[in-house]
Amino acid sequence: MIHEKPEDQLAKRLKRSLATREVRGPARSRKRDSAMRGRDGDKGAHKKAGRQRKASRSAHQMFEKDSLEILRSALDELEKGFSQLPSAVTPIKNKKAFEKVILEVAERLKNNYPYFHPLYAGQMLKPPHSIARIAYMLAMWINPNNHALDGGRASSAMEKEAVAEIAKMFGWQTHVGHLTGGGTMANLEALWVAGQLSDEGGYATGANPGKKIVASEQAHYTHSRISSVLGLKFESVACDRSGRLDIEALKGVLDNGEIGTVVATIGTTAIGAIDPLPQLLELRKQYGFRLHADSAYGGYFTLVDNLSAETRAVYDRLGEADSIVIDPHKHGLQPYSCGCVIFRDPTVARFYKHGSPYTYFTSADLHLGEISLECSRAGASAVGLWATQKLLPLVKGGEFAKSLSAGREAALKLYSKLKADKRFITAFPPELDIVVWAPVAEKVSTASELSRAIFDEAAKRNLHLALVELPTEIFDLASAKMERDRDTITCLRSVLMKPEHKDWLGRIWEILDKSASEVVMDERKK
User: Fold this and answer.
1) Distance CA 386, CA 132 (A)
2) What is the pLDDT of residues 301-314, one digit of tens each?
3) Which backbone phi and psi does 298 adopt, to 5 degrees?
4) What does DSSP assign to residue 218?
5) From CA 235, how far away is CA 310, in angstroms rounded?
6) How far is CA 391 from the centre of its chain?
7) % of the chain beyond a pLDDT of 70
8) For 44-58, 314-328, 335-349, which range has the lowest pLDDT when averaged over its residues?
9) DSSP 8-state secondary structure symbol assigned to residue 209
10) Which of 29, 50, 56, 221 has its CA 20 to 30 A from that of 281?
11) Closest Cα partner for 344 from 281, 398, 268, 435?
12) Which candidate, 326, 340, 320, places its Cα nearest to that of 160?
């Protein structure tokens, strides 16, 4: 009898698996309605008043609530799937206490910035789509765990299907991958696999264990921390004036022969810069390093139709990376936390192989825990993602792609307004949907102070921006006649990632304009 190696068995199973209201307030009683009509004697007037009250509620409504009715219907349908079981409902024992606590929760949650609103244009915070929110909530009545099929049969299948759609978006028909607790864990797994690989066959199979991980100075700080956790050496490489990894600087590092993996950031956190992937792919041929694409923020932009030609060239070759990270909880319209890591070579699944005496026993099919470093993972995340991609397919020209294009269009329009305004200095056009700028002043230090003042003034007017500290080299200070009295400048930053930002840009600019004027006026009074 021929005995297969465990990794060969895992590869076969992997291959099989891949083939595989509006809430309304209490209604008035008929008796009360009748009495009111009798007193006023004008039924039409009361109908009109009712419409006015409804319009008033609608005008002040912040949250979509109609989907709650659909949730109730879906919950009734889900319940039918377990009708063969005896009833075992655990009732709410003290509804008044229950309600009191929930209302207290609502009160506490008021202490937040309005992340869901178009006037929040600061950090990378985007509300989940209604279908993701409702699908996630529906799954909570089951509370599946996608570590093993024992804990999440349906949700595990949905995760495999959803991840396969993401891989397909990058042109991969075969892959291995799964959802994670976020981009940090996804990048950790990608770099962990890189560290496990030998150099046999060059970049086609991996990089030397123990060799350095390199990423640009604008890459997410998590890569340095992850490398430390994994016991791998890490080095930052300088950026060019556009905030991208500098190719010449990278060549100097590569010539030392100590680099095992290069991280290409596809959408840096601070400015949304895109590292020059085509040039990196050419260098990979020469130096034989492993190439990991951290597209946690920018990955979904491969679907949009309004990128610059240079940026488009990056996305056209993104599928040539050895591994890719993308965060559905950013532009993928998902609740936190939902990251994703995928590998182009499915055989790297062998590094995850492990045994467990108390899981993986209900099915010979692939359990997601067998290809993941994480154990327990929320199956509800997979359900929300699957439902969203079912409603909004990951295709060019589709509704989802158009929503990303709308955010980018808003960013381009804001950039144009800022560039034309002599009060501000801009660095470069946004590659995705992130815009950075600073007030013009005699000195960089003064400009930094003004940025903070405008940030505070705009917040008072309900426009929420962000601040970012950037190297002064990315700005043409000479043209603005600004003295460089420090190496970094505090800039204003806006992430226009909501499609609604396109229609709200006029209001955003109006507030920014007034805020800047107020700050400049106060500065002149000093």
Assistant:
1) 8
2) 999 999 999 999 99
3) -95, -5
4) T
5) 27
6) 18
7) 83
8) 44-58
9) T
10) 221
11) 281
12) 340
